[in-house]
């Protein structure tokens, strides 16, 4: 009998356990970002149980033994909003889910989450009325570009002018503002002004290394009034690598054509109350242009960065964090202002004249910033930053040949046959026949800025007021000299050493002192968002010119200039959601740029309008925007790099109308059909018309004698980019075609005369990526695959080509 009871007990227990096993299911799936990129390391859990999984390199997961009945599948990953899916698990059934995570949108911009982003890592970009743009880390990884011109070519509304082919000193404008040395955009890194002297010398021949950045933000329309001093076309914020939320490291090594060798390495970690990141970015190249004596025409650039953070516990009654950033950048490039004549460009566009063999740019930059965040309540945050940037550069470059400027010789070599012979090496050069100027300058930029954010609800209204303050100082010490050389057998020899500080306009100090404040009040009611705001700027600029004969700066020939301006800049943006997927927006704001220290120069002022429509669907997104910028007074800076005399003064351009259309579309043609493969496509198009509205004679050479209706130089009327790709779990292939219409190089109207324009530029790039392991990526980039040669610019002096075809092969190792 006992054996019978034992047997029955065993049978009943086995039956019960089998029923429990049957009362379980299996859940599998794949997790993607909102941009359809697979996400590794996402935690997937069954709420109320210990069952769970972590996604692999393909974003896939499997959870076995899920209890039957109603349950919740929870997906979590740092930087993304939590995703919750209610599921009904039936006995023995399997379920597959495709989960899309959206970036974390916090009402308050907590730096422990968002780093240096102005739009909460791109998640808030659609909440800002206007045609703004966020280039994500995933997008940057497709082509691994290190030239900011290539990165920004996908963004409609950008005005880009190439110069050296590497993007060392890019010329970036937005919506027809002018692109001279990117002086008309508010350039920031992690939300802090990064130009060496944003008020005194915005065209300062410096741009942060694009390959070091993890994201780019372009803010246009009324949304940019928070980010002066330039508030007409737009603001450009470069987001550097953020402190990781867990132990993370990257080693990215590549090499390629023209002696390219690049390395991007960083490592960081975070605990509950601390974080640290150490990073370096190294670029080297031998150059794609050739000198007759085979000297190097390349560059070497090294970036180093360290970030650290201390913070209270996340659940502290009053959350606080303190983050520091220290950066160092050094560059040595064998770059020149000396281009080519029309005839020589046709013979060999990649040659360099022998008289430029000593030309070299050296620079050194130091960056310091300290940021404090406090959240005194659950609806308010206060972010305060203290910053300092020191930048010194010396562009040692050929200035005159036989006493004649290189620009005049290149414009008409037949008028200067002796000097042209000296420059090309056809004739030996006597003592002091070549003058090489040391364009030696030191800059500083420092300040303190605070922004106070709040968010609260009253009934159906959501309120998000923000107020900000900034006190800023910057300055430039211009202390130059010229050496003179002879040349025999293609080798230059110094015959007369210059004296520092001697030379017209080359021995002076300039300083700017600026106070700015803004108030912006965002309100949401259902599908309607309204963001009115106002900015106030008060600027005092002063210049002390010690003259050509006072290198010790005793003040015996001191000339002083100063300028003071105060402005109020209102603006408002409105957006209205139409149904689930559509939204329309409009905005108007007053634009401004500082006038410089020249007394008779007025500030740049404009009234700017935009209206647009956009849609954001699971399969595709698109937008269309029309803008109109009405300048009461356009300014430009007199720099040698833009074809001027190099005084640094600002010139009045009078009334100008700039208008255009911006189109953009992105999508995955395989969305909803398969999660294993993707077929991404993207398209952007810009139409820009910028005309002078008055007749005048300008001292600025590229403008010259302007007639009403003349088009501004260096603004392409048409620009587009079309990209397509294919992505599988182990590899991806992408290609892009880019087009830029011919630009005028001198103001005018009608057909572009010979010698006064650039070429129509059409290039194609190809990218291939292979993932042999979850932590390893092997990639190759082939740029300008058709090896087309184009005239891309006639400045600084002479004709310049685009970069010829180039190939780069690399490998990335990631640890996380």
Automatic annotation (TrEMBL):
Cellular compartment(s): Cell outer membrane
Domain TonB-dependent receptor plug: 127-235
Alphabetic keyword roster: Cell outer membrane, Membrane, Receptor, Signal, TonB box, Transmembrane, Transmembrane beta strand, Transport
Signal peptide interval: 1-23
Domain TonB-dependent receptor-like beta-barrel: 344-785
Membrane-topology descriptor: Multi-pass membrane protein
Family statement drawn from the similarity comment of this UniProt entry: Belongs to the TonB-dependent receptor family.
The protein's name in its UniProt record: TonB-dependent receptor
Gene source species: Persicobacter psychrovividus
């Amino acid at each position: 009998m006992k054996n019978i009871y034992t047997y029955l007990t065993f049978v009943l227990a086995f039956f019960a356990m089998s029923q429990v096993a049957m009362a379980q299911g299996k859940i599998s799936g794949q997790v993607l970002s909102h941009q359809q990129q697979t996400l590794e390391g996402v935690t997937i859990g069954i709420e109320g149980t210990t069952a769970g999984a972590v996604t692999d390199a393909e974003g896939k997961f499997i959870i076995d033994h899920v209890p039957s009945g109603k349950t919740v599948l929870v997906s979590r990953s740092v930087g993304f909003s939590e995703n919750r899916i209610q599921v009904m698990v039936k006995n023995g059934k399997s379920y597959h889910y495709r989960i899309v995570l959206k970036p974390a949108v916090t009402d308050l911009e907590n730096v422990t989450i968002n780093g240096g982003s102005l739009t909460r890592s791109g998640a808030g970009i659609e909440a800002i009325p206007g045609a703004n743009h966020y280039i994500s880390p995933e997008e940057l990884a497709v082509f691994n570009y290190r030239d900011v011109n290539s990165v920004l070519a996908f963004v409609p509304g950008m005005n880009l002018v190439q110069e050296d082919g590497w993007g060392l000193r890019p010329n970036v404008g937005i919506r027809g503002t002018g692109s001279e040395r990117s002086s008309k955009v508010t350039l920031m890194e992690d939300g802090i002004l990064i130009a060496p002297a944003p008020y005194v010398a915005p065209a300062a021949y410096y741009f942060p290394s694009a390959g070091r950045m993890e994201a780019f933000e372009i803010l246009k329309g009324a949304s940019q009034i928070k980010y002066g001093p330039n508030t007409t076309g737009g603001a450009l914020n470069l987001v550097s690598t953020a402190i990781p939320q867990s132990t993370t490291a990257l080693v990215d090594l590549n090499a390629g054509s023209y002696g390219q060798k690049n390395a991007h390495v960083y490592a960081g970690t975070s605990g509950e109350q601390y974080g640290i990141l150490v990073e370096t970015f190294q670029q080297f190249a031998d150059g794609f242009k050739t000198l007759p004596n085979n000297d190097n025409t390349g560059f070497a650039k090294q970036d180093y960065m360290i970030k650290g953070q201390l913070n209270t516990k996340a659940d502290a009654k009053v959350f606080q964090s303190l983050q520091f950033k220290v950066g160092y950048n050094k560059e040595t490039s064998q770059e020149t202002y000396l281009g080519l004549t029309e005839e020589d460009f046709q013979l060999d566009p990649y040659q360099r004249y022998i008289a430029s063999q000593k030309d070299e740019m050296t620079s050194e930059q130091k960056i310091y910033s300290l940021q404090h965040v406090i959240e005194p309540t659950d609806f308010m945050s206060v972010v305060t930053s203290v910053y300092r940037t020191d930048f010194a550069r010396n562009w040692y470059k050929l200035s005159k040949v036989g006493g004649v400027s290189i620009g005049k010789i290149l414009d008409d070599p037949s008028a200067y046959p002796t000097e042209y012979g000296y420059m090309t090496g056809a004739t030996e050069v006597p003592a002091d026949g070549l003058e090489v100027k040391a364009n030696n300058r030191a800059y500083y930029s420092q300040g303190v800025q605070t922004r106070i954010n709040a968010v609260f609800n009253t009934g159906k209204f959501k309120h998000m007021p923000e107020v900000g303050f900034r006190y800023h100082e910057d300055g430039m010490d211009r202390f130059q000299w010229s050496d003179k050389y002879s040349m025999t057998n293609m080798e230059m020899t110094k015959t007369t050493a210059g004296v520092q500080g001697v030379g017209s306009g080359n021995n002076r100090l300039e300083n700017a002192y600026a106070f700015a404040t803004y108030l912006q009040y965002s309100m949401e009611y259902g599908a309607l968002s309204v963001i009115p705001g106002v900015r106030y700027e008060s600027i005092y600029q002063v210049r002390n010119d010690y003259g050509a004969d006072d290198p010790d700066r005793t003040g015996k020939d001191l000339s002083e200039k100063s300028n003071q301006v105060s402005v109020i800049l209102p603006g408002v943006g409105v957006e209205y959601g139409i149904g689930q997927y559509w939204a329309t927006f409009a905005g108007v704001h007053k634009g401004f740029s500082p006038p410089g220290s020249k007394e008779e120069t007025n500030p740049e002022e404009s009234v700017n309008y935009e209206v647009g429509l956009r849609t954001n669907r699971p399969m595709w997104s698109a937008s269309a925007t029309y803008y109109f910028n009405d300048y009461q007074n356009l300014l430009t800076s007199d720099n040698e790099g833009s074809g001027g005399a190099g005084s640094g003064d600002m010139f009045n351009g009078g009334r100008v109308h700039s208008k255009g259309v911006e189109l953009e579309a992105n999508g995955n043609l395989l969305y909803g059909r398969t999660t294993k493969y993707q077929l991404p496509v993207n398209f952007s198009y810009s139409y820009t018309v910028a005309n002078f509205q008055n007749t005048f004679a300008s001292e600025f050479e590229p403008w010259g004698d302007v007639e009403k209706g003349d088009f501004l130089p260096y603004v392409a009327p048409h620009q587009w980019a079309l990209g397509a790709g294919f992505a599988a779990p182990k590899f991806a292939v992408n290609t892009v075609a880019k087009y830029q219409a011919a630009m005028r190089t001198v103001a005018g109207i009608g057909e572009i005369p010979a010698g006064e324009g650039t070429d129509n530029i059409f290039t194609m790039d190809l990218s291939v990526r292979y993932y042999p392991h979850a932590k390893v990526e092997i990639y190759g980039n082939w740029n300008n695959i058709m090896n087309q040669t184009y005239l891309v610019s006639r400045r600084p002096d002479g004709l310049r080509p685009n970069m010829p075809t180039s190939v780069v092969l690399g490998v990335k190792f990631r640890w996380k």
